[in-house]
Amino acid sequence: MTEQRIIDASLECFAYSGYQNTSLADIADKVGIKKPSLYNHFSSKEAIFLRVLDEVAQRELNHLKGFTEYTKDRSIKEQIHEVFNLYVEHMSYSTEGSFFKRFTFFPPEEFADEIHQVFIRTEEQVIKIIGPIFQKGIDLGVIRPLHLNELTSTFYTIIDGLFLEENFYNRATLVERQRASFKIFWLGIQAASQEE
User: Fold this and answer.
1) 179-193 burial, b for 16+ CB within 10 Å, e for fewer?
2) Which of 13, 14, 110, 151 is most buried (CB neighbours < 10 A)?
3) Can you give the pTM of this predicted structure?
4) pLDDT for 118-164, tens place per residue?
5) Are 60 and 100 in contact (CB under 8 A)?
């Protein structure tokens, strides 16, 4: 129980203050324990950070878990739109998203490799969710017969652009850009026979 509280408190500290600006004392204060008590659970701040990094990756995947089950009766466009919205909303407005953005855009040098590996692993898991939807869309003639790598990389590039814009625009502007981005993305991948 205390270990999970340490992880949760550390996640907030790292997400909003960064790694360098977060001390063990900050984490202990947020948990409501004394700093030496942290060592009953973790050997160092580095160990805490790496655990939080893994936890955030798992939470991101859990957030999308079950997605295919509750959207299986929707159209291909609706399923892709749902993943797009779920991913953008969660990464833009959650503590986990703030953590992920901070440390993928500006990784502390000592953790650059670990962060990169977790980022790639998370992306691969999301592709396992979105890839079959794209493939089904191609099979049904709803999506142009493009290579799956092209579809998934474009999907991610648009999302990454929206994450970057979050630093410059208010929520209303971001929502409009999110809507417009998906509209243009869909117009680009839909099969010619599906054009309205």
Assistant:
1) eebbeebbeebbeee
2) 14
3) 0.80
4) 888 888 888 888 899 999 999 999 999 999 999 999 998 998 888 87
5) yes
